[in-house]
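Severity: low
Component: inverse-folding endpoint
Summary: output formatting inconsistent between runs
Steps to reproduce: submit the following structure tokens with default settings.
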């Protein structure tokens, strides 16, 4: 596909533009770069510590940043994953592989002319405020640059959250972040702690490789298959999103029960929460593995002695391997700021702005009930229009942010994993309302299916 020329926004003198630092060349950083060009801002640099763009989807085995493992696929369909102005190439399956997702990001950067703005292999060591305004950015190699604005797009899958295990385990313990393939664990007795999408995928993979796996869960989860009625489940469920929240959840839950029966028949405990009160568990293989006895569900780990693990349900088992699929904590070690001023401790207005940090913005620091990419695309569009002067953020953003936090506490299960959870469609509507009607569009949007329209 040929490169799309930059939009026809009135040319400015680059020297008079604000200087902008974008940290991270993954999906969010690339979307930010594209939208800065779309509003006519060119005085920016996108830094990334890796040798190639792609963020979490970079495939290098020695990448400390990437948390993807062999065989992983997107849990959202290509239609609801693609950025607004670029569909996935023809022939891409409903759920793209990690290789296809990386190639799409490479295509996106080339198509919209982003490559010349990237500075790869450049880790940010320190970002600190300058008296009188602005930010000094220091690279790990020692170079310093100053910027008017810093946009943090470093993702939230780089600092693993390890569980506190009650006892001493003498087998092999690793986090899902370090799990790349099940091949080294053939024949071992495996335990997976955690029931998110990574936990389900890894448990199925280990059960296939080892003959059996055990999962330790705090609660039961609603399992959504990848396809409903022969189409991607997120596309099918999107048909219900005209309904208010509670009727929507009840209707979707009834639909899943009618198609796949009660979770109890598969060995999964009955969920103690409504559908979508936790992050959706998208998996078509887990129910089959549970039904066949290839995976056994147990309660939380109560004690560990050597290789004997006892669970809260009274059962015990011998294991050689524990994989902790217990999530991640956002990490901003390069920001020389009071931790109390950093998310998620200090919440963000629209998940973007921290009012006590003028000139610092965050992109992609949320976990949606769908793909993060099209929402980050809208975040980038809103922020680019703010930086170009087309939209101002309200003065009472601290009060508005508190109201957002209160609503989320009511809706989602209280756990570290859901501190940054958002509903895809609700948050999309919020961002679309905030984007100004005079926002420039890329003049030659490419035809094809796309998750979120460029129009309002």
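Observed output (run 2 of 3):
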């Amino acid at each position: 596909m040929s490169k799309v020329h930059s939009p026809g926004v009135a040319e400015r003198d680059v020297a008079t533009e604000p200087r902008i630092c974008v940290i991270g060349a993954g999906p969010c950083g690339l979307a930010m770069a594209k939208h800065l060009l779309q509003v006519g801002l060119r005085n920016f640099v996108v830094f990334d510590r890796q040798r190639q763009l792609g963020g979490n989807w970079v495939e290098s085995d020695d990448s400390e940043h990437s948390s993807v493992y062999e065989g992983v696929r997107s849990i959202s369909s290509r239609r609801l994953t693609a950025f607004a102005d670029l569909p996935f190439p023809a022939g891409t399956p409903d759920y793209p592989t990690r290789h296809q997702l990386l190639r799409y990001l490479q295509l996106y950067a080339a198509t919209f002319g982003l490559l010349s703005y990237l500075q790869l292999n450049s880790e940010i060591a320190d970002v600190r405020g300058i008296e009188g305004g602005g930010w000094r950015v220091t690279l790990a190699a020692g170079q310093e640059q100053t910027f008017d604005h810093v946009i943090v797009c470093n993702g939230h899958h780089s600092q693993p959250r390890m569980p506190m295990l009650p006892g001493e385990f003498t087998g092999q313990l690793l986090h899902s972040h370090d799990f790349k393939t099940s091949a080294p664990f053939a024949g071992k007795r495996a335990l997976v702690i955690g029931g998110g999408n990574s936990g389900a995928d890894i448990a199925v993979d280990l059960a296939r490789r080892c003959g059996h796996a055990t999962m330790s869960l705090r609660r039961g989860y609603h399992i959504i298959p990848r396809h409903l009625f022969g189409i991607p489940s997120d596309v099918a469920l999107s048909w219900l999103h005209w309904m208010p929240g509670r009727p929507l959840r009840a209707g979707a839950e009834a639909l899943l029960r009618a198609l796949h029966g009660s979770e109890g028949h598969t060995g999964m405990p009955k969920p103690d929460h409504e559908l979508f009160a936790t992050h959706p568990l998208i998996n078509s293989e887990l129910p089959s593995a549970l039904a066949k006895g290839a995976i056994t569900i147990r309660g939380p780990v109560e004690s560990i002695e050597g290789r004997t693990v006892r669970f809260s349900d009274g059962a015990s088992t011998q294991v050689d391997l524990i994989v902790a699929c217990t999530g991640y904590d956002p990490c901003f070690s390069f920001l020389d700021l009071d931790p109390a001023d950093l998310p998620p401790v200090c919440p963000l207005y629209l998940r973007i702005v921290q009012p006590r940090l003028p000139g610092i913005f965050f992109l992609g620091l949320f976990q949606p009930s769908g793909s993060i990419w099209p929402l980050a695309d809208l975040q980038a569009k809103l922020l680019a229009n703010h930086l170009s002067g087309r939209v101002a953020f309200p003065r009472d953003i601290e009060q508005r942010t508190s109201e957002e936090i209160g609503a989320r506490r009511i809706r989602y299960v209280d756990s570290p994993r859901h501190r940054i959870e958002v509903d895809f469609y609700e948050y999309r509507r919020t961002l679309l309302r905030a984007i100004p009607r005079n926002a420039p569009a890329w003049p030659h949007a490419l035809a094809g299916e796309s998750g979120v329209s460029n129009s309002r």
